[in-house]
Design a protein that fits this description.
- Helix content is 44%, strand content 19%.
- It has 201 residues and is α+β, with helices and mostly antiparallel strands.
- The chain has 3 domains: 4-61, OB fold (Dihydrolipoamide Acetyltransferase, E2P) (Beta Barrel), CATH 2.40.50.140; 70-141, Orthogonal Bundle (DNA polymerase, domain 1), CATH 1.10.150.20; 146-200, Helicase, Ruva Protein, domain 3 (Orthogonal Bundle).
- A 5-stranded mixed β-barrel has the order 1-2-3-5-4.
- Belongs to the RuvA family.
- GO terms for molecular function: ATP binding; four-way junction DNA binding; four-way junction helicase activity; hydrolase activity.
- Residues 72-91, 107-126 form the Helix-hairpin-helix DNA-binding motif class domain.
Length: 201
């Protein structure tokens, strides 16, 4: 099991980052909020979780250990795989997830693309006694992360497409949140705002 990866950021795409470790480039699948903290050429340390399938080995990277723990716990619920768990963390901070699950807040959980009412109820039923109380750290690490001055539109667009929305829907959502980008240049916050605009539509 690979607990974390430390190395120079060799590249950042719209859905993953490549870290050079001992001359080997490891690709880590990350949420837009995590990717916004990485800069090519800088050294980074990311907690990781490896998902093993018959035909693939996929490494997921996280902002912190709290996000990683939530990612792994979510997958213990019936019907939740790594893609859906990552989508949940792209929309909600770990503390938001804890509050939604412990408070049986179905409405908040269904903000995540791929989680319907029945799925939310199942997650609450299976994880309510295991999710724990909010720790107060997730929100502060998620907010205030500066997005690159150029490229936030592409990151948010790709994040939406990766979460299951069509290219056209993603473009409309990006246009809808563009006026707020100057006030909140945070890719994670912009992605959540774009998702809210899509739900309203």
């Amino acid at each position: 099991m690979i607990a974390f990866v430390r190395g120079k950021v060799a590249g950042v795409t719209l859905s993953s980052a490549v870290l050079e470790v001992g001359g080997v480039g490891l690709e880590l699948m990350c949420t837009p909020g995590t990717l916004a903290t990485l800069r090519t050429g800088d050294e980074a340390i990311l907690p990781t979780s490896m998902v093993v399938r018959e035909d693939s080995l996929t490494l997921f990277g996280f902002l912190d250990d709290d996000e990683k723990s939530c990612f792994e716990l979510l997958q213990t619920a019936s019907g939740v795989g790594p893609k859906l768990a990552q989508a949940a963390l792209a929309v909600l901070s770990p503390d938001d997830l804890r509050m939604a699950i412990s408070g049986e807040d179905v409405k908040t959980l269904t903000k995540v693309p791929g989680i319907g009412q029945k799925g939310a109820q199942r997650i609450i039923l299976e994880l309510k006694d295991r999710i724990g109380a909010p720790v107060g750290a997730g929100q502060s690490t998620r907010t205030g992360v500066p997005a690159p001055a150029i490229g936030w539109r592409d990151q948010v667009h790709q994040g939406l497409v990766g979460l299951g929305w069509s290219t056209k829907e993603a473009e409309k959502a990006v246009d809808a949140v563009a006026p707020t980008a100057a006030d909140s240049p945070d890719v994670g916050a912009l992605l959540r705002a774009a998702l809210q605009s899509l739900r309203k539509a």
